[in-house]
Write a structure and sequence with these properties.
TIM Barrel; four-stranded mixed sheet
């Protein structure tokens, strides 16, 4: 979506009923889906491994990362139920909260971390404005850095995958999640074309972070916007990622998961669909995957793949990767 159209959308969004927003997105996505089969959900070019790649820890076939962007208070209040479900099946995940979007409970964050899961920051507000100008970004970055320090966390996930990877260098983080290998349904729909992390740095200042793209379609797009009723797309994409030794990162939202047989809202899907995915992974790929938190992936990548003094730009064969010059 061009920047001007994106800005207009976020200007008008507060005045458009949510149900109408979703219906419009569903119609646009259905039309677009007919023309993107060659690059979504699989972009064959994204399978290229970085130069010098030696594989995941313990010889695992692929990495599995479970992330949850928590957009609303409703999602925040469902995190405990989601964490219990994952714990029961032997998985760990990362939860990213919007500090000024709703009340973020310190007890909630503490319970997540004590269970061996991870907490991160999901923007400052979920309003589409963070990357609109350098002035807005700088003002929010100062507040985000204060929160990162207060929460003692090291990861940032950008709302709606808005991004400028150069600007993100000003955040005090070890890793960022603002990109994807391929996803033509996102507002900034240019993918980075890789199913591996990459390093973003500034040679002059020495600052840098690991960029971790998501590589499986987000649940909201898959189940709400595109109307999928099962995990077929996830399963097929995962098989391809595993065959190419890549990283399977799925970003889901407790906000849209329906727990405990409650009445289903128009923007919800049964949590059983996510549960089916976890059970599929556990049975189909037993012993083959490294289920890691994002901070673990970032530290592994920096230790194994980042050359001291590496330049800021790169290709799919380098340990560095694409930089973001603005909202594409």
């Amino acid at each position: 979506m061009p920047t001007s159209v994106l800005d207009l959308y976020y200007l008008l969004k507060p005045f458009i009923p949510r149900r109408l927003q979703i219906v419009a997105r569903q119609l646009l996505a259905a039309r677009k889906r007919r023309s993107v089969g060659g690059v979504w959900p699989i972009d064959p070019k994204a399978a290229a491994a970085p130069r010098g790649w030696r594989g995941w820890p313990e010889g695992k076939k692929f990495a599995l990362i479970l992330n949850h962007d928590v957009d609303t208070q409703r999602g925040h209040d469902r995190c405990g139920s989601l964490m219990e479900l994952e714990t029961r099946l032997g998985f760990r995940s990362s939860f990213y909260f919007v500090p000024e979007g709703y009340r973020v409970s310190a007890d909630q964050r503490r319970s997540i971390e004590q269970a061996g899961f991870e907490v991160g920051v999901h923007g400052l507000r979920h309003d589409g404005k963070m990357f609109k100008s350098r002035r807005i970004f700088d003002e929010r970055a100062r507040r985000i850095n204060k929160i990162l320090k207060e929460w003692r966390v090291v990861g940032f996930s950008s709302p709606s995958m808005h991004r400028n990877l150069d600007w993100v260098l000003d955040l005090d983080i070890e890793y960022d999640i603002s990109t994807f290998d391929t996803d033509p349904f996102e507002p900034q729909n240019e993918g980075v074309g890789r199913i591996f992390p990459f390093f973003v740095n500034d040679a002059a200042s020495g600052r840098g972070y690991v960029e971790i793209p998501y590589t499986l379609p987000q649940d909201h797009n898959l189940f709400i916007i595109l109307g999928e009723k099962d995990i077929r797309v996830w399963a097929e994409k995962l098989e391809w990622i595993a065959a190419n030794g890549g990283m399977a990162l799925v970003n889901t939202h407790p906000d849209y998961m329906l727990f405990d047989g409650a009445r289903r809202g128009f923007e919800e899907y049964p949590v059983g669909q996510y549960l089916s995915f976890l059970e599929h992974v556990r049975t189909r790929y037993a012993g083959q995957y490294w289920n890691a938190l994002c901070r673990e992936v970032a530290r592994f990548w920096r230790a194994e793949m980042v050359t001291p003094g590496a330049g800021p730009a790169g290709t799919p064969g380098d340990e560095t990767g694409p930089r973001g010059s603005g909202r594409a």
